[in-house]
Design goal:
single chain; about 120 residues; alpha/beta; Nucleotidyltransferase, domain 5; 3 helices; globular
Amino acid sequence: MLSLFKEPIYYVQISKNSFTVRSVNAGESIVFNASTPFSTKRLLIGEFTVAEKLLKKALSSFPKSIISPTVIMHPLEMVDEKLSEVEKNVFREVALAAGARDVKLWLGKKLSDNELVDI
């Protein structure tokens, strides 16, 4: 069981219409597929409200803490060499709206739990 006073860290891998959320503290991952699509032809998150509701549901699936979580957002698809300012804002704002205290963006290889803690 997680401590109520331990900062939760969630690693969110974003694919088309899907979040894979890993609780670093709990050591478990859950895949959340959107019943209503949040991705569009041009944007990984094109429907903000749909993505926000799904991510909020995902984050609430893990044990609670009185400290709001740090969320590392990792888009896995539809990313060129870097993110535009608009894309960065969308990923950040979706995580904040879902309850994150701090949001970090990651591009590159998938991260291990140890690497996530270091970020």
